[in-house]
Amino acid sequence: MKYHPPLTLSFSxxxxxxxxxxxxxxxxxxAIKVLRKNINDLNINNQSRVILSDWKxxxxxxxxxxxxxxxxxxxxxxxxxxxxxxKPVVKISDFVFDDDSIVMSLTGAKHGEVTIDGExxxxxxxxxFTFYGFDLSKVTENIDDVYTITVKNTDLAGNxxxxxxxxxxxxLGSSYEIGENVVLINGKxxxxxxxxxxxxxxxxxxxxKDTVVTVYRNGVPTVLTKGVDYDVTVTGEIDEYKVYxxxxxxxYFTADGVYEISISSVDAAGNHNSNTLQEKNADMRFAVxxxxxxxxxxxxxxxxxxxxPSMNVEFDTFDNLSSDVVMxxxxxxxxxxxxxxNGTYSIELLESRVPYNIKISSLDEAGNETIVELxxxxxxxxxxxxxxxxxxxxxxxxxxxxTLLLAGIRITLHIKGIxxxxxx
Length: 424
What we know:
Distance between the termini: 180 Å
Structural class: mainly beta
Number of helices: 4
Strand content: 35-45%
Largest sheet: 6 strands, mixed
Number of strands: 30
C-alpha cells in the first residue's frame, strides 16, 4: 500500500491485542527506532487515532508485531552433563530482528563471569552464535564448572525475549569433604566412633541407583542400605554444584575392629567416582577398640621370696588391634626401661633386703590400659631377710617371741613366789 504527501495515516488498535508497532522507513534502522520511540510515547488507547502527517520521510508500509524473538539452544541440553568437548549454539530470530540489541552472558558457579569466545553467523531473520570455549583439546586449564548461558534480545517492535540454559563440564567427577568428627579419628584408634559424616560434591547429578556405600570391618565388606543404614541429603540449585551429605548410623561402629568406608558413584557425565582413589585424597579408615591389652608375667608372683643372688622378671603384652602398645615399668616407684627381645621384655632384680614392688602398664593406641602389680617380691639368699620379709612368718615370729617372754616372766614370778613362801 502506498501513501503520498501530504502524509496522513489514521488507524485503530484494539487494546486486547497488546500489539507493538514497528515501522519500516526506507530500510533505515535509525529512522525506525526514532519513529518507534515517538509512537510509544503517544500512550495509545483503545480506538485512539494516531496522526503521522508531520513525518518528513515517506512511509512505505508498516506492520504490527506481537511476537517476541525466538531464542533456542543446540549443542548442549538443559542440565546436561559432559566430560568431553561441547560446542553450544544459540539461535536468535525474529521477523523484525535487531542484532544490535543482543545481550549475552556466560557464567560459571566457580569461575564467575566468563569471557565469551565464539563467532556470529547470519541466519534467516536472525543470528546464530557458536561458543568455542568448551573445546577440551584446546584449553590449558581445567574448566569443570556448572555454566549458565543467558541470552536477551529486543526486536525492532520492542518485544523482549530472555532465555538461559544450564549445563556442566565435568571431567574430574566427584570431590569429597570428610566431616569434622571423621577427620579427628581418621587413621587412628578410638574407643568410640560417632557422627560419621562426609560430603560428595559434583558438578553434575549422581545416578541414584549407582551409588554404593560400603563399610569394611577387618576387611569384610557390608553394603549399606540407604534410608536404613545411612541417610543422604542433597543440596544445590540447577546452576550450582550438587552436594551429597552422607551420615552413617553410629551403631555400625560399636564392635571392635578396623573400619574403612567406601563410597562409589556414577554421575550424569558418566564419570565413575570413588573416595578411595588416590588422587581424591579422601580415605576414611579408623579402628574402634574397647578392649584393653593383655599383660603376661612369667616366673614371679606377689608375696614370694626367691633364694637367689638376682633374678630376671619376664613379661610380654599384646593387643587385639593395636601394634603400637606403650609399656611403662616402675620398680619401687622408679621408672625403668626393660630389655626387649622378640617381643618379650625383662628386668633384673638384684638381691636386696628391701622387697620389690613392681608395676607394669600397657597402654594401647585407643587409650585402653592394663596395669599388673607385683607386690612384696623378695630376692635374697639370707634366711633372715626372707623370713623378715615374709609377713606371716614375721608375725608368727613376733608372736612367738612375745609368748616366750610372757612365759619367762610368768615362770620367774612363780619361782620368786615359792622362795618367798619358803622363807616364812
